[in-house]
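Me: I keep going back and forth on a fold encoding question. No explanation is needed for now; the record alone will do.

Assistant:
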Amino acid sequence: MREVACNMELLVVDDVCCGLENVAVPALSNVEGTRLSDIKYTPTNVAGPGAPTDPSEMMYEGCDCHTPSCSSDCPCILRYGPTYNNSGCLLTEELEKFLRSKPVLECNTSCQCGEQCSNRVAQKGVSLKLEVFHSLPKGWGVRAAERIALGRFMCEYAGEVLGLEQARKRTQNMKQEDMNYILTLREHIAGGRIVETHIDPTYIGNVGRYINHSCAPNLLMLPVRVDSEVPKLALFAGRDVKIGEELSFDYSGEYGNVAKQGQLQMATEKIKDSSKLKPCFCGSEMCAGFLPFDPSLYEVHEIK
């Protein structure tokens, strides 16, 4: 390891992304001998045990927009309405609640528009300057190495797509000292159905796995679909982010919703095995005290 003179941190890894993203993301630590977990890097989701759908499977038709960038009459945009402006940022802060309540569909592999189309954002992977750093007492974290404007795409939260039983098995087999990376997305669709997506970057994942929780986060998560019905869990700047500021999102999937965070914590505290609760170190005034997680993954079921 070599020392980085500007902040007296040690370079642990030149690029945690193994050259698979648009930019290198270094890992730094001010504690000599610190090591990252040995994982397989993937820029996007991959099928894991019990996955109901392979995220690499092509499921959407492409548009016939033979232009560098699609206009508002593109079928992909018309399907659910526009999500990004011409610069590829989320439309406005005022539209945040609206965006979280509607599906987001980007142009896909079969589309005839150019690679620089403004409706191709989350699929492009990491393009901003980020750094992984050792953040005591939380462990590893991610910070901005450049100023990031409101609405800019940061990265996916990518990993293995698991079936429900496999997600439960992995969750219930965790030890107290283990980090819980499994994130469950629930989407309410027509007919009252609920579609669940379980993402686990514990063994196979991307830089998103190092982003810490905060009860007052600066990132928001949106499910974005491109080729497959399996969504990309895309993280966007929920406000302007300064250089050197740690990035965070709410592991419960909320953004600035204290009431729902409190409801989730009450459900969390009802689980019989309280040893599964992990303290939150975000330090915000709204801190709920414990990291949120999906209590349903702790329900007693026969694990095969």
Q: What stands out?
A: The two ends are 44 Å apart (CA to CA). Confidence is low (pLDDT under 50) at residues 1-6. The longest strand covers residues 194-205. The helical segments are 75-80, 96-100, 164-172, 258-269.
